[in-house]
Amino acid sequence: xxxxxxxxxxxxxxxxxxxxxxxxxSFDRCKITSVTCSCGNKDxxxxxxxVALSLYRIRKPDQVKLQDQLQKFVQYLITVHHTEVLPTAQxxxxxxxxxxxxxxxxxxxxDPTAGASIDDENCWHLDEEQxxxxxxxxxxxxxxxxxxxxxxxxFAKVREMLKMRDSNGARMLTLITEQFMADxxxxxxxxxxxxxxDKYRQLWDELGxxxxxxxxxxxxxxxxxxxxxxxxxxxNSVDVCPWxxxxxxxxxxNLTNALPQGANANQDSSNRPHRTVFTRAIEACDLxxxxxxxxxxxxxxxYTNYCYHDDTENSxxxxxxxxxxxxxxxxxxxxxxxxxxxxxPREALRLAIAIVNTLRRQQQKQLEMFRAQKxxxxxxxxxxxxxxxxxxxxxxDPIGTLFSSLMEACRVDDESFHGFSDFTENxxxxxxxxxxxxxxxxxxxEGESYLTLAVEVALIGLGxxxxxxxxxxxxxxxxxxxxxLISKLQEIELDDTLVKIFRKQAVFLLEAGPYSxxxxxxxxxxxxxxxxxxxxxxxxxxxxxxxxxxxxxRAMRLLVxxxxxxxxxxxxxxxxxSVVPNRYPRWFTLSxxxxxxxxxxxxxxxxxxxxxxxxxxxxxxxxxxxHSSSHIFKLAQDAFKIATLMDSLPDITLLKVSLELxxxxxxxxxx
Length: 671
Known about the structure:
The chain is mainly α. It is built from 24 helices and five strands. The chain has a three-stranded antiparallel sheet, with helices on one face. Strands 4-5 form a two-stranded antiparallel sheet. β2 (19-27) and β3 (32-37) form a beta hairpin. The chain is elongated, with a radius of gyration of 32 Å. The model is unreliable at 248-254, 256-270, 413-433 and 565-584 (pLDDT under 50). This is Zinc finger SWIM domain-containing protein 6. Keywords: Metal-binding, Zinc, Zinc-finger. GO terms for molecular function: zinc ion binding. Residues 21-58 form the SWIM-type domain.
């Protein structure tokens, strides 16, 4: 029936004797609903003996013959328990011999191991107590003994369960969250005003992101979502629940709106409730998937409208007739993550492409908008236009989600998309052994692929003009996520197709004014582009040196340290928020930012060796933009080392640069 039992023998090892384990497994509608094993191993996952018995039964379904031994089984049962079962056995035997009895009117017989009825809930067996104990143990170790890695493996297991559409995914995440909320360190840190460790904070971020995936399940029942919402609100109301941005409340818009609305827009930020790591999941409970345009996007590769005119800001289709999806970008990307997490990779890919096409169209519109007002803006030389919400470093990691979704689609060994392998023979292959240009979607330009789209959206996100967020953790997260994304890009070796994307985006970013972090005029508190520009510079240098230097020199500025930088005007284009002027920012990561600025300058000095004109331009940029005497002195040392390398004659121009930079800081050291 629905019950399986057996003995599993574990062979003897040099230091261990042979062991025999008794295993029992119950089933219900293709799921293992309970397990017991005499081995006594305590773990979240099934022991090897349970797995062995299950595989044996799957591979050898006819190994055990019951019919031949059924009579013997009955006789032994009556012999051992004759006083208890003999009257019942005689009664049943009489009924079987009577052709008109009720037993003979029914085919088959009742199965005491048949499990629950068809209407009852059923799910895979999960040892809830063991999950709680393990999470509690890992948390108590405080990041030592690989506990952080173990917790991340548990989160990965939750994602695996969601992908397999296993209802235990939400159950397991609930158990994990309850232990996180019960961690005694939360109260201690709150009382002492101490920040939690960075690695522990990242675990909370992943916890919040997973709950977003849970509640955005496109096929979850309303009662499920209501139950999750109730639980999330309960956790959210606890005093020690971690805030979304670390130690500070923030003024970010909520999940479903790009800008604050109504009374909340004018409310003093100090009176607003703090956004916790669960706030976005709570807001996501209000989202749905019933929009017909959205349904058409995710369900078909053929959804087009070639007669549609691309003349309105929120057009459903672009000039190619391809679908667009206008939604708060992090929210739209959270949908992509939810689709991927719940085992809908093709639907996630379709939505990701629609979002990237929307971002590219928005980029073009912003460029046109800036050109229309360029003369006036350059005359003023200042702007208060900025994006309050950056996509790189965002709690929902929208750019990372799009990048990963598109990269997964062009992995050579990705089984989910193996159907596209037929295209690869006739396509140019990226030098990377892991990825290929797969042209498997019609909503792309000629010559474009998932790989080019992934690279382009990463460049768009990294180059987005955005204001530096408040708080140490939020600022560190911006730096960390930027470096992580660049690290992923560096794994892809550039071919001619990708170099065209780099050129295209570099030109866009240089010409887009306040809408780009590399625009001519940007807000004083914009996140600096030094790290990103260094990557752009080294990538473009072998292919377009002029564009590479132009990009890097533009990025050298650090306006927040410019004492003469005006606060800005209050005019702003549509869809872009204005920040309050004259607010001196608290940049906790300023020392890291200045070191990245110094690295960018050093990279340009190295590349410009032997080129008098370029060295002069780089020197001028250093003297104008770098304000730290220690960094100027370091650059003087770097220039001297580069000029006097053993394998070549000294570079006189570079030695002069070194001397000039050294003399610039010499009076300060004398003082």
